[in-house]
Amino acid sequence: EAMNLIQKGETVSFSGCIDVSQSVKKTKKKMICTPMELLEIASFLVSVKKCKEYLLKTDTILLKDLAESMDSCNALIQSVQSKIDATGNVKNDATVKLKQLYKTLVDTRLTLNEKARFFIKKNANSLMESMSTTINGRLSVLVKNQDKNRFGGMVHASSQSGLASYVEPECFVALNNEIAQVQGEIEEEIHRICMELSLQVASQDRIILSNLETMTLLDVAFSKAKWAIEREGCIPVIRLSQRNILLERARHPLIDPKKCISNTYSLKQEQKCLMISGPNMGGKTVTLKTIGLFVALAHAGFPVLCDRAWIPYFDSLWFDIGDNQSIENNLSTFSSHISQISNICHHCTSKSFVLLDEVGNGTDPLEGASLAISILEYLIQKGCMVITSTHYSQVKAFGKANDQVLVSSVEFDSATFRPTYKYIQGVSGASYAFAIANNYHLEKEILDRASQVKEQNEQD
Q1: Residue 340 DSSP symbol
Q2: Is the separation of the CB atoms in 430 and 390 below 8 Å?
Q3: Residues 392 and 369 sit within 8 Å (Cβ to Cβ)
Q4: What is the chain's alpha carbon radius of gyration, rounded to the nearest angstrom?
Q5: Looking at residue 325, what is its pLDDT?
């Protein structure tokens, strides 16, 4: 539904939608939110309101259901917006009391400033500069040291030169005290306002957190939709009863779209295993990863980069890919693979998806090939869907002779000695080991001798 809306040129704005869960949870612990946290909660609820209003006007079904489940808490929005400004500060006129306190503060400061101007004019000869300054929140003047005790009041600090001191004359003290008192009352009123708003948030905490969960679902849906449209992907169809797979013009999402070769992969209902052969560097592992990734993404409810995608439902996904050899655990390449495959064979079911890269690799070729055939037979008999790659000719021969196995390959251009990354269904591919070795400038006499050994072995 999100893809359809975007394709029509419509979209949902998530502006102001942020994670407010920590601020909301604070209020349930009787803690007080800061003005900025309260503003963020209100901004989030405004985003919920706009999103809900927009989606309810669309002809969607699922998105509308999600929108209808949200409550924008209009009363809470109005309460916060009436008291907190757009910069995250409590408004000066948030309450009648706060408005009066700010007026008193302004009037008192004006009176004090007028008194300071008169004092400076009258006592200019005793002062180092003809202006007042604020020290620790109290208006003071800079007096020459020999006169610092002449005006009573308090001496707050000395100047950097040591020739003068910051003095609060006796005539400033009462007004400075009044200013400090009013500022304290303002802070108390701001604290009370934040506490009152925090209690309102606490009373709506379940609704706000539910809204956050729903907005997350919507954000994820539209993010997936935008990604799928930008990359020309589709929504995969998960089939519960049918066991065939189709990935039409599949492209791996991590490969540059300008360089990525699209391929179509498919298995019929009666086929349980896709066996991919071909040279090293030809794209076998990328093919495995593309199919495995798309199966995983589909089961995670994510679009895939295909024109069409039909995927059976699997109750578990099993992967053995890459080299997990370990010095610490005393595992060779072969041992690491076999330990993984043993675990897979033990736990997989008839509804499992199994991906095995170079099954039976890393040991004596004859024993490795025999083991690979036996493992594949076991998994096929169990009813798993298996995707595998191999270089072994015995394994390829097994696949060709088995109706439940589809043998395919990745193309290699023997003229340029470069892979084309094109997938060829139903055709077994050669390894091209000698051609690749020659392309990497292995000594000619080594290659000639290798060819002789190969021919002799084939004759034997």
Answers
A1: H
A2: no
A3: yes
A4: 38
A5: 47
CA 62 remoteness from chain centre: 24
Q: How far apart are CA 302 and CA 227, in angstroms?
A: 10
Beta carbons within 8 Å of 47's beta carbon, 6+ residues apart = 13, 14, 15, 16, 17, 215
Residue 174: what residue type? Answer: A
Residue 305 in contact with residue 253, Cβ under 8 Å? yes
Count of helices and strands (H, E) across the chain: 14, 14
CB hemisphere CA count around 379 (13 angstroms): 30
Tens of pLDDT, residues 366-390:
888 888 899 999 999 999 999 998 8
Stretch (H or E) spanning 71: none
> Which of 72-86, 177-191, 252-266, 437-451 bottoms out in mean pLDDT, i.e. has the lowest?
437-451
Strand 245-250 vs strand 138-144: parallel, antiparallel, or unpaired?
unpaired
Please, are residues 195 and 54 in contact by the beta-carbon 8 Å criterion?
no
The CA distance from 115 to 260, in Å, is: 79
Neighbouring CB atoms inside 10 A of 171's CB total: 15
What does the alpha-carbon distance between residue 165 and residue 140 come to, in Å, rounded to a whole number?
10
Nearest to 373 by CA among 336, 404, 339, 346: 404
Kindly tell me the sign of the dihedral angle through the C-alpha atoms of 211, 212, 217, 220: positive
Helix (H) or strand (E) holding 412: strand 405-413
| pTM reported for the whole predicted model | 0.73
Amino acid at 6: I
pLDDT, tens only, 2-47: 999 999 988 888 988 999 999 999 999 999 999 999 999 999 999 9
Residues in the chain: 460
Count Cβ atoms within 10 A of the Cβ of residue 315 and give its class: 0-12 exposed, 13-18 middle, 19 or more buried.
exposed
Tokens 């539209």 -> residue: 222
